[in-house]
Design goal:
two-stranded antiparallel ribbon; alpha+beta; 191 residues; single chain
């Protein structure tokens, strides 16, 4: 008895000397609870390995460019913030100029927050979210909305959420909270 062993990856050497990655599945053949033989099945996984490596390279390249772009945009934002702080620190500043500078300052801060959100979403997507546990989707949504509403200007943004009472169980990782917070916050800020 017992469970059959899992598939294993092996290298099979071709006549040319080239090693071909293969997946082997070996199972016992039983008759009257006695092992009377072995069944082995092998398949070439060279194409799958090539595609996996190609995917890894593309993901690494995407991460590199996202980090590079984020870094450069943050540097630009830092320079803009410096200039705006100098303008706002001027004595007897024209009220109209002050209002414009404060508006520009808020937009730079929103850009920095958007960059942070995009990096967090990319991180969540790259790492698959970790281990999953049973959670209540309704409870998570309500908590995300409550957290967001506490920091919003309620004269400009209203978030309403209607749901039947009860529990809505799902299997999810801790990253679901972050992802929902980012989605709801983005919807509120950029719509």
């Amino acid at each position: 008895g017992g469970a059959d062993p899992p598939a294993v990856e092996v290298g099979v050497q071709a006549k040319s000397g080239h090693v071909i990655p293969a997946e082997m599945i070996v199972r016992p053949i039983r008759h009257s609870n006695e092992v009377v033989g072995i069944l082995g099945i092998g398949r070439n996984v060279e194409e799958r390995k090539r595609l996996e490596e190609s995917l890894r390279k593309v993901i690494n390249e995407k991460d590199f460019y996202l980090d590079l772009m984020s870094h450069d945009l943050q540097n630009f934002n830092q320079a803009i913030v410096g200039y705006l702080e100098m303008i706002l620190g001027t004595e007897n500043i024209d009220p109209k100029l002050e209002r414009y500078a404060k508006g520009a300052f808020r937009q730079v801060m929103a850009t920095a927050q958007l960059i942070a959100h995009l990096k967090r979403v990319a991180q969540i997507r790259s790492y698959g979210g970790g281990s999953k546990t049973k959670r209540d989707l309704r409870e998570i949504l309500l908590r995300s909305i409550t957290n967001l509403q506490s920091g919003l200007d309620k004269t400009n943004v209203v978030i309403s959420f209607e749901s039947p009472e009860g529990s809505f169980p799902i299997m999810a990782s801790d990253d679901l909270n972050d992802m929902l917070n980012l989605m709801i916050e983005s919807a509120a800020r950029y719509s």
